[in-house]
From TrEMBL:
It comes from the Bacteria. Catalyzes a reversible aldol reaction between acetaldehyde and D-glyceraldehyde 3-phosphate to generate 2-deoxy-D-ribose 5-phosphate. Keywords: Cytoplasm, Lyase, Schiff base. The active site is at 89 (proton donor/acceptor), 151 (schiff-base intermediate with acetaldehyde), 180 (proton donor/acceptor). It is an enzyme of class 4 (lyase). This is Deoxyribose-phosphate aldolase. Its EC number is 4.1.2.4. It comes from Pukyongia salina. SMART domains: DeoC. It holds the Pfam family DeoC. InterPro entries: Aldolase_TIM, DeoC, DeoC/FbaB/LacD_aldolase, DeoC_typeI. One of its GO terms (biological process) is deoxyribonucleotide catabolic process.
Length: 216
């Protein structure tokens, strides 16, 4: 697969307005990125702009803390799909995971997956807050709950993706589950290292810079 098709071109900044999202979509069309990733309130706008293109729309849910109620995550996910989202990037309940409330974590993910049906579900672990065992458990729970992807980071925590985390996540989940590296990826060289380690998708707000930095 060509490098540009690994990229989820992302703008999740709280200060971003409609014009910023339209620009994001224009860039995604120009470079034929796999998807744009936006906050759920802008899915409708992205859907209008991307109509007729092959660029997918990923919407965040329970973002960036993961601490919203399951019902609110379900409602947000359903609305995003109704507005045109192809994929949902939900944040795992980090506090529940760290408190060993594994049943609650699984039920939270299952509820969102059930709500979106065959749409792609990515579960964000926010690895900067987890120890190695918690990362493994989070991955295993996400897979059992029906996630299509496990994802490293929101980009709003104390740290982003690391090569070690992507390697660990790829080794923990089965081949049925894919891995998205996201958070602080700022160069083509770095992105390619993640892909070599098994990342199936790269989440970055620097997609255009990465494309200008490569002949791939």
């Amino acid at each position: 697969m060509s490098f540009h098709r690994y990229i989820d071109h992302t703008n999740l900044q709280p200060t971003s307005g409609p014009e910023d999202i339209l620009k994001l979509c224009e860039e995604a069309i120009t470079y034929n990125f796999y998807a744009v990733c936006v906050n759920s309130c802008y899915v409708y706008l992205a859907a209008e702009k991307l109509s007729g293109s092959n660029v997918k729309i990923a919407a965040t849910v329970g973002f960036p803390l993961g601490a919203a109620s399951t019902q609110s995550k379900v409602t947000e996910a359903k609305r995003a799909v109704k507005d045109g989202a192809d994929e949902i990037d939900m944040v795992i309940n980090i506090g529940f995971l760290k408190a060993d409330l594994h049943k609650n974590v699984k039920e939270d993910i299952e509820a969102v997956k059930k709500a979106i049906g065959k749409k792609t579900l990515k579960v964000i672990l926010e690895t900067c807050y987890l120890n190695e065992e918690e990362k493994k458990i989070g991955c295993m729970i996400a897979e059992k709950a029906g996630a299509d992807f496990v994802k490293t980071s929101t980009g709003f925590g104390t740290g982003g993706a690391t090569l070690e985390d992507v390697k660990l996540m790829r080794a923990t989940v089965s081949e049925k589950v894919r891995v998205k590296a996201s958070g602080g990826i700022s160069s083509t060289e770095e992105a390619l290292k993640y892909i070599e380690l098994g990342a199936d998708r790269i989440g970055t707000s620097r997609g255009v810079l990465l494309m200008k930095d490569t002949n791939l």
